[in-house]
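[worker-b] picked up task from shared queue
[worker-b] task type: protein-ligand structure
[worker-b] ligand name resolved to LD2JLWAY; SMILES cross-checked against name lookup, match
[worker-b] sequence length check passed
[worker-b] input payload:
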Amino acid sequence: MSLQQFPILLGVNIDHVATLRNARGVSYPDPVTAAALAEQAGADGITIHLREDRRHIHDRDVELLAHTLQTRMNLEMAITDEMLAIAAKVKPAYSCLVPEKRAELTTEGGLDVAGQLARVTDAVASLASHGTIASLFIDADKKQIDAAKASGAQVIELHTGHYAEQTTEAGQQQTLQQLRDAADYAHGLGLQVNAGHGLHYHNSAAIAAILPLVELNIGHAIIARAVLVGLDQAVRDMKQLLQQARMQAIAELN
Ligand SMILES: CC(=O)[C@@H](O)[C@H](O)COP(=O)(O)O
Ligand SMILES: NCC(=O)COP(=O)(O)O
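[worker-b] inference finished, payload out:
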């Protein structure tokens, strides 16, 4: 088995380029430019989160990126009429449905698909009606995975935040095993399994080694490193790190 059979893809989330821009209400750094640089450096896709409060990515960014991206857009959004209408206009390749609370610093948990199955099913169908593939951002929970499958979604993104927050080896290993089990279970149901949130240069290798995972969406850590070494290098570093971890995992299979 080669890397070609089990590639690990990197979706670069550029939200926090916009955070820096918005800090002074100026036009720079432009997320559109950042996306182009990230793609040139090897990003397999660009993720942007158009939040209801527009704290970072703005509607202008989404509209321009829809015309300029060379890879593909993964538009993260809440399940609201406003966001579904924007998705219908922009027609991103993917839309990742996420929970949102205005008061949160960042996304705190996975989408409760099981508790609102009809609403999620309708959103998945609405996105599919204009060719957008829905991805559901959920916790590593079999009940949520079963509900995701029942909603008609083809893709899930496992929330790795709980794993990323662990401060002990035991906690890391426990949450890592939960992610492994969830990835295996979802893959067994025929879902494409992605993962993301809180991943950085010291905790991503273990996630990349989970073979059923297809894509990791990583943002804050890459943009943070880019502030110091530049975006091209930050993306290349992460891409290389993930690929090495994946190759090692494949080698250990044989
Ligand atoms: C859903 C997720 O984990 C992130 O992609 C999300 O974008 C986090 O929100 P902020 O980017 O606002 O931190
Ligand atoms: N869905 C996760 C994502 O896009 C990036 O999350 P983070 O790396 O900024 O925490």
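[worker-b] attaching auto-annotations
[worker-b] The pocket of 1-deoxy-D-xylulose-5-phosphate (ligand 1) is lined by residues 13, 15, 49, 51, 76, 98, 106-107, 137, 196-197, 219 (CB under 6 Å).
[worker-b] releasing lock
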